[in-house]
Structure formats: C-alpha cells, structure tokens
C-alpha cells in the first residue's frame, strides 16, 4: 500500500457553532441517521437502523466505559488545580489493572493551573465512597512529563472507586460547558462495561435496548471490542505533512470470540464508530506482523499499513495467524495498542460499513471517513448541514458503506 500525498485543506469544511450539539436528545435513538450507499443519500431516524441492516451482517461495537477523568483539587490558598488522567504509568501501564489497584498509582496527565502547583506540594482532597471518607493525595513527580502519583487512605478501595466517586465527566473541549449530572449517564453507551476511556465512543450513544432487540430480531450478529479512547482523539492536525501528525496510542483488548466471528463472517461487517474500525483494522495488521515474523508484540505503528508489500495476506490468513499464536500461548484474549492512522489511500480489510457521528473539520476522523467513501464525504457533510443535522459527540449519526 503506497503512502499518498494529502492536502489537509481538502478535508476542511465550515462548521457553524450553532450546529454543534451541546446536549444529547431526550431519547437516544431519536437522533437523525444519514444513510450513504454507492453515492446515494437517504435520511432516517436512528431507530430505523435495523431496517437498513440485513440478516447475517455482523455488528461490532466498542464496550469501553468512560471514567470521570477530571480530578479537581483545591490548594489551601483556594486556587483550584485540575488533573486530567491521560495514561497509566505505574505500577502498570495496562488500564484494567491500574484501575483495580489498591496502592499508589502514577499517571501521565494534563494539569490545569499547573503554575500554581508548587514543587514538593502535596494536594489533598476528601472523597466520599459508600458512606466512608477517603483522603486522596496527589504528588507531582515530573513537571515536564506531568507525571502525577495518587495515593489514598484507607487503601481498602480500588482506584476506580476513587475516580468514580470524585471525578468529573471529561466532556470534549468543543462543548464549551461544564459537565452536568445528566452527562454521567448520557456520555456513556448503554453497553459500556470496561472502565478506561477518557472520551466516549460516540457512535454508540444512539443505541437503545429497543434498537438492539430489533437488530437481533432481524438476524444481525453482534460482537464487541474494547479500545480505551484517549484524549488524543480530539487533537487537531497542526503539521503541513499530514502523515507527520503524532497519532495517539490507544489500548485494545480483543476476546477470542470476536476474532473467531470475524474469521467466520461471510456477510458484511459493520463497525460502530471509528474506534471499532481502528481496533479491527489493527487486529488485521497484527496478524500481518505475525506472518511477516516481526515479533509477537501487539503494537501497530501509525504508518505500518502503508509499507510497500508485493502481496497482502487475506483477512482469514491474518486472523488465523493471531488465533494460532493464542493457541500456542493459551491466551483467551489479545491485548495491545495501536497508533494506526487511516487516511485516503488506505485499503480496508475488516469492514464494509461504518456507523459514525459527524466530526470536526480537518481532523484524523474526517480523513478516516474520506478513506472509506472518497470525495463523497463532502456531499455527505454538505447534505447533513443543509438538513439541520446536529454535529459532534452529542450530535446525529450516519451509516456509511464502503464502495
């Protein structure tokens, strides 16, 4: 696959401020749903999704759960310091493990009002958990890396309980508002399970139990991946050469069952959200790495798919390579991380359809959409603007088919 030349200006569009959905609709599946297939666009509601899917299709969604990653501390002087959790460092870099820790943990963070946090100063806060008061302390270990150690007393509760009891929902910066009580449930999919994301996989916010029941009745199969969405998903592209944009690394967990379902799938596969796409495509490239004897570590570098190869392994060959490794090691899941950068010129290996919201102009997410439907992304977005669709995280949705 050859690395193409990309002009970022070709992926910009004008998004009026009043088209950004600041709040969710009262009912999740009342959102609009734009359907794109072979150049044709039709308009629906999300509760019509089952009518647009066919028996035998495979729907794959991301079951990550957003953690309240904004921790607010107040100095004795009254100044507030906000610590935003980004990536775990110690005692483990694996998110599920560190969330269950009952001893000090350290994270790379973003720090608001950092200049007011003196070197050596320990910030303290009081946390109420199940009627018990817990003292939470934060210590700045490395100002340049923004590395913070958290400890608490007593240590009979896990770090996830501390965060759930004291943190605030990490709403995207473009909403320009503080998190409210409603966001605790609405900035979360109904199927979220595994804590670790600092941003929601927003394509899934439209699903309801009624939609799932109708999908199952239709004979559509389901499976799930886990990709813990990082704050880097909101990072704008600031470089002239798009390929030099520093892609965020995100942790992926895949059960054997989803790999087997993808291997056996004869009909179309539909990913719910760009994070599910990145998970599935990364799984394919992990299999390619195994076939090419490039090590057993599950890590997909951002431009690895664009390395020139005479012949690419088939989807089945790549997935079988992963399963063979799992058989030899006794693993029931694979865990790794990915920086995969999907932009125009990319050859999709794992999906035919994508459910996704409408994204900010000039971002990696728009590039992914353009990789899937080519220049038609412009007509899709123009149509959505003309038909009063709501944009971004709490906005409306689309179902796009790879042509």
TrEMBL record:
Entries under SUPFAM superfamilies matching the protein: QueA-like (SSF111337)
One example GO MF annotation: S-adenosylmethionine:tRNA ribosyltransferase-isomerase activity
Keyword match Transferase: yes
Reaction equation(s) it catalyzes: 7-aminomethyl-7-carbaguanosine(34) in tRNA + S-adenosyl-L-methionine = epoxyqueuosine(34) in tRNA + adenine + L-methionine + 2 H(+)
Location of the protein in the cell: Cytoplasm
Swiss-Prot/TrEMBL keywords: Cytoplasm, Isomerase, Queuosine biosynthesis, S-adenosyl-L-methionine, Transferase
Pathway membership: tRNA modification; tRNA-queuosine biosynthesis
Enzyme class, spelled out: transferase
Enzyme Commission code(s) on record: 2.4.99.17
Record-level GO BP terms: tRNA queuosine(34) biosynthetic process
GO-annotated cellular components: cytoplasm
Gene3D superfamilies: QueA-like (2.40.10.240)
S-adenosyl-L-methionine keyword on record: yes
Protein task: Transfers and isomerizes the ribose moiety from AdoMet to the 7-aminomethyl group of 7-deazaguanine (preQ1-tRNA) to give epoxyqueuosine (oQ-tRNA).
Subunit comment: Monomer.
Family: Belongs to the QueA family.
UniProt-recorded name of the protein: S-adenosylmethionine:tRNA ribosyltransferase-isomerase
Annotated source species: Algoriphagus ornithinivorans
Gene that encodes the chain: queA
């Amino acid at each position: 696959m050859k690395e193409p030349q990309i002009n970022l200006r070709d992926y910009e569009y004008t998004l009026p401020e009043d088209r950004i959905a600041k709040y969710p609709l009262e009912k999740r599946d009342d959102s609009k749903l734009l359907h794109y297939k072979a150049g044709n666009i039709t308009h629906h509601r999300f509760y019509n999704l089952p009518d647009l899917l066919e028996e035998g299709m495979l729907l794959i969604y991301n079951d990550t759960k957003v953690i309240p990653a904004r921790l607010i501390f107040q100095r004795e002087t009254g100044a507030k310091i906000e610590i935003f959790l980004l990536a775990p460092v110690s005692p483990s870099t694996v998110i599920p493990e560190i969330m269950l820790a009952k001893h000090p943990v350290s994270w790379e963070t973003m720090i608001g009002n950092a200049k007011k946090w003196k070197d050596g100063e320990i910030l303290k806060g009081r946390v109420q958990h199940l009627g018990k008061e817990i003292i939470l302390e934060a210590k700045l270990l490395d100002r340049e890396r923004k590395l913070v150690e958290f400890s608490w007393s007593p240590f009979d509760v896990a770090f996830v309980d501390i965060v759930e009891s004291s943190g605030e929902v990490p709403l995207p910066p473009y909403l320009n508002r503080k998190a409210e009580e409603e966001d605790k449930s609405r900035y979360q999919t109904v199927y979220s399970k595994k804590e670790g994301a600092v941003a929601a996989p927003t394509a899934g916010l439209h699903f309801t139990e009624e939609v799932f029941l109708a999908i199952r009745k239709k004979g559509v199969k389901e499976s799930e991946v886990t990709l813990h969405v990082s704050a880097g998903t909101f990072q704008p592209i600031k470089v002239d050469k798009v390929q030099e944009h520093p892609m965020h690394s995100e942790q992926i967990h895949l059960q054997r069952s989803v790999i087997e379902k993808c291997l056996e799938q004869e009909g179309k596969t539909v990913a719910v959200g760009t994070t599910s796409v990145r998970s599935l495509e990364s799984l394919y490239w992990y299999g390619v790495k195994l076939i090419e004897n490039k090590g057993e570590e599950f890590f997909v570098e951002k431009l690895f798919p664009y390395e020139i190869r005479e012949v690419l392994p088939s989807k089945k060959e790549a997935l079988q390579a992963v399963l063979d490794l799992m058989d030899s090691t006794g693993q029931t899941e694979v865990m790794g991380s990915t920086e995969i950068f999907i932009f125009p010129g990319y050859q999709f290996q794992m999906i035919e359809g994508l459910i996704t919201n409408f994204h900010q102009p000039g971002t990696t997410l728009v590039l992914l959409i353009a990789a899937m439907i080519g220049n038609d992304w412009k007509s899709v977005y123009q149509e959505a603007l003309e038909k009063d669709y709501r944009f971004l995280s709490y906005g409306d949705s689309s179902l796009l088919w790879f042509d």
